[in-house]
Write a structure and sequence with these properties.
The complex is a heterodimer.
Chain A lengths: L3 E3 L4 E4 L4 E7 L3 E10 L6 E6 L3 E5 L2 E6 L4 E6 L8 E9 L5 E3 L3 E6 L1
Parallel strand pairs in A: 2-11
Antiparallel strand pairs in A: 1-3, 3-8, 4-5, 4-9, 6-7, 7-8, 9-10, 9-11
Chain B lengths: L4 E3 L2 E4 L5 E6 L6 E8 L3 E9 L2 E4 L8 E7 L2 E6 L8 E8 L8 E2 L3 E5 L1
Parallel strand pairs in B: 2-11
Antiparallel strand pairs in B: 1-3, 3-8, 4-5, 4-9, 5-6, 7-8, 9-10, 9-11
Classes of the chains: A mainly beta, B mainly beta.
């Protein structure tokens, strides 16, 4: 199993809908989790970080972490065409581990 | 505050030539990372430093790749000799505290080897 795996995508949703992005991780990646957004031709930029079980909300974005099931998700409410990008899930390893990135999910929000 | 600064932004070189990519991390950050991104392999960690010392270079693809960090504000990634399969976007990133903390990426160096 890869350390961090994302649902394959690509994902297409209509404007105004909820976009749901999912990520699962292995035991070696368990301390800290991040969602990055990457526009085409640009560098990844941090959207959310989450460290504890449960939900964390920031504007239209909600990150959810379930350590028992080893998954982390990102919900984007009221999706906008400007949300169209690749979303990268990343996990930090135990103790001294570096971040490991998933392959990314391409999201397209169509008007 | 200035973010991570990389140069060059774009480079086109011929196979066999030496390529040097440069990076200035965010001031005060003690971790520096070099990533490579391709469509096929996604974002791969090549090497990372802590306080200028290489900690994990297991992602460096082969001996043609080398990285240095002579001081806290500068790092280089060198490819010698370059090959077409090295064509990719190379990102430098930095973080503070632990390598599992939020990392901040530079804008990337787009390398094409012909």
């Amino acid at each position: 199993q890869k350390e961090v795996e994302q649902n394959s995508g690509p994902l297409s949703v209509p404007e105004g809908a909820i976009a749901s992005l999912n990520c699962t991780y292995s035991d070696r990646v368990s301390q800290s989790f991040f969602w990055y957004r990457q526009y085409s031709g640009k560098s990844p930029e941090l959207i959310m970080s989450i460290y504890s079980n449960g939900d964390k909300e920031d504007g239209r974005f909600t990150a959810q972490l379930n350590k028992a099931s080893q998954y982390v998700s990102l919900l984007i409410r009221d999706s906008q065409p400007s949300d169209s990008a690749t979303y990268l899930c990343a996990g930090g390893g135990t103790s001294y581990g570096k971040l490991t990135f998933g392959q990314g999910t391409i999201l397209t929000v169509h008007p | 505050d200035a973010g991570v600064i990389q140069s060059p932004r774009h480079e086109v070189t011929e196979m066999g030539q030496e390529v040097t990519l440069r990076c200035k991390p965010i001031s005060g950050h003690d971790y520096l990372f070099w990533y490579r991104q391709t469509m096929m392999r996604g974002l791969e960690l090549l090497i990372y430093f802590n306080n200028n010392v290489p900690i994990d270079d297991s992602g460096m693809p082969e001996d043609r790749f080398s990285a240095k960090m002579p001081n806290a504000s500068f790092s280089t990634l060198k490819i010698q000799p370059s090959e077409p399969r090295d064509s990719a976007v190379y990102f430098c990133a930095s973080s503070f505290g632990t390598p599992g903390n939020t990392i901040y990426f530079g804008e990337g160096s787009w390398l094409t080897v012909v």
